[in-house]
Amino acid sequence: MARLANAVRPRLASAVTAARPRLVGLARAVRVRPGHLPRLPRTVRTWQYTAGAATVGLALAAGVVTVAGPWDANGQRTAERDRAAALERSGGADHGGSGTAGGGLRPAPSAAPVLAALGGTTSAVGTKKAPPVPEDLTGRLKPLLDAPALPGPHAAAVVDVATGTRLYGADAGKALTPASTTKIATAVAALSALGPDHRLTTRTALEPDTRELVLVGGGDPTLTAHARTDGWAGLRALAADTAEALDRRGIHKITLSYDTTLFTGPALHPIGVNDNLAPVSALTVDEGRTDGSAGGPVTRVGDPAADAAARFAGFLKGAGITTTSPGPSKASTRAQTLATVSSPPLSALVERMLTNSDNDIAEALARHTALAGGQPASFAGGAEAIATQLRKLGLPMAGAAFHDGSGLDRDDRLTAGLLTALLVKAGDPQRPGLRPVLTGLPVAGFTGTLSTRYADGAAGVVRAKTGTLTGVNTLAGTVVDGNGRLLAFAFLASGTTSAPEAQAALDKAATALAG
User: Fold this and answer.
1) Cis peptide before 270 (omega within 30 of 0)
2) Is the distance from CB of 356 to CB of 295 less than 8 angstroms?
3) DSSP summary character for residue 413
4) Is 200 helix (H, G, I), strand (E, B) or coil?
5) Each residue of 138-169: pLDDT tens digit?
């Protein structure tokens, strides 16, 4: 609407300019001149003024209409008709690197137009068409899900998001290992418990008695030490603000310690040392990565809190504050906060977690969900808190079992029915705070863990969370079908022997829904 308004505004201005001379002449013609007419009763004089104003108004309208034309025989502006027809064409912006064999550029895949051309007989959103017939879905999906690449136990469910009606189910109540699709449940639970605007704050505090500076971890897994923060909370900014506060107090040498007591329990996941997850700590920068990367498996530091404190000490030194070698401590209730940095809102953290399948964010959000519910901020407490939040939402929890927030634990169990119910809940107009669960899902062929998949399939119309463990492949998300309806789906497969083949089989099933 804004673009249309901007396009029309110059034409209207030109129309008024072109019509102004005629309007001035008309106004002079109808203007009542008391000096040349006999005095008339007030009612007649009012009628004349009214008639004059009406005439000027009609003339202005006629002038604008004439200039803004041309018009066709059906009363529609030709330009509007042409624009509507142009918008109906398929295609999209070229993203490079997708040239055809002939050397031409291949447009990016595009979903069906949201608005059909004026006067069209079809509706792109399919509001008058019935949802897919379950029998038709069975005929399409069953052969795909019974593919040789999925030889073990598997389950599936498809639901119309708008109505909540299940359109397809195959062992939808069977609890299987969900892998990273667990993060959908973690996202719903965290947003429900904390709200989409919640932020995680890291701070520095000065002990009034011991003159000790404490770096207090706020459980922000996105805290970064990079010079370029890209909107995330920056450890460098916290150091600069802290140094300024100390300088105002005349302090240039101080004892430094760090506080990680917000989280409890074991820091190491039951899977042990793993490149996919750092030891979980309330104080960590850049997820304990050792190569400056922002995602993907990489060797992690053994003690994220000590690493963060050492970097912080270096930044303070650069700002003129000398510190001792930092060690663990706990800020007292009398400690005075000197500076703080806060994460973006929880909605942004959830989207980043889902798009990149970020295990570090998932485990941190599980602990914050536990804190919100009065549970210990540990693996066990986070798992219990997630289950509690989902029960409060009235979701089908039969057979579900949580042991972490990331899905790395092979003892996690979810059903296809629960996963689709989570997605439908996130699409509920009455729960806008859960919308980041849908907007954070990777886009097929474009973003996150689906950026290299669906190159020859339903790119752009499938959005789904992937899940992969040895022998486990899962996929759960949303897809726009051929009638423009939004469907939620969940496919879980165990006992797979080839991850690429299993992924391809699940992608084909999602592509079939898009058709």
Assistant:
1) no
2) yes
3) B
4) coil
5) 999 999 999 999 999 999 999 999 999 999 99
Residue the block writes with tokens 């996130």: 426
Going from the C-alpha of 492 to that of each of 15, 107, 181, 413, 469, the distances in angstroms are: 62, 33, 9, 11, 12
Catalytic annotation, residues = 180, 183, 357
Q: Give the containing element (helix H, strand E) for 369.
A: helix 359-372
Return the H-helix or E-strand segment holding 488. strand 486-494
What are the Cα distances from residue 205, in Å, to 331, 332, 338?
Answer: 7, 9, 5
With bands split at pLDDT 50, 70 and 90, how would you rate the model's confidence at 515? confident
130/433 Cα distance (integer angstroms): 29
Quote the pTM value.
0.76
User: How many whole angstroms separate alpha carbon 473 and alpha carbon 469?
Assistant: 7
pLDDT-derived band at 218 (thresholds 50, 70, 90) equals very high
pLDDT at 122 over 90: no
Angstrom CA distances, 226 to 183, 210, 230, 235, 383, stand at: 26, 31, 9, 8, 31
Q: What is the DSSP string of 28-84?
A: HHH---GGGS----HHHHHHHHHHHHHHHHHHHHHHHHHHH--B-TTS-BHHHHHHH
Produce one character per residue of 413-442: b if its CB has 16 or more CB atoms within 10 Å, e if not.
bbbbbbbbbbbbbbbeeeeeebbbbbebbb
**Residue type present at position 362:** A
Contacts for 357 with CB less than 8 Å, ≥ 6 apart: 180, 183, 448, 449, 465, 466
Task: Report the distance separating Cα 314 and Cα 322, nearest Å.
Answer: 9
Residue from 135, 154, 156, 188 nearest 488 by CA: 156
Output b/e per residue, 496-513; b: 16+ Cβ within 10 A: beeeeebbebbbbbbbbb
pLDDT reported for residue 136 = 85
- CB atoms < 10 A from the CB of 150, how many? 23
Q: What are 8-41's pLDDT values in tens digits?
A: 455 545 554 555 555 445 445 444 444 444 444 4
Q: Could you tell me if 415 and 159 are in contact, meaning their C-beta atoms sit under 8 angstroms apart?
A: no
Six-digit token pair at 9? Answer: 């505004």
CA 362/CA 350 separation, integer angstroms: 8
Q: Report the chain's C-alpha Rg in angstroms.
A: 31
User: Which two tokens mark 5?
Assistant: 């308004």
Q: Tell me which amino acid residue 312 is.
A: F
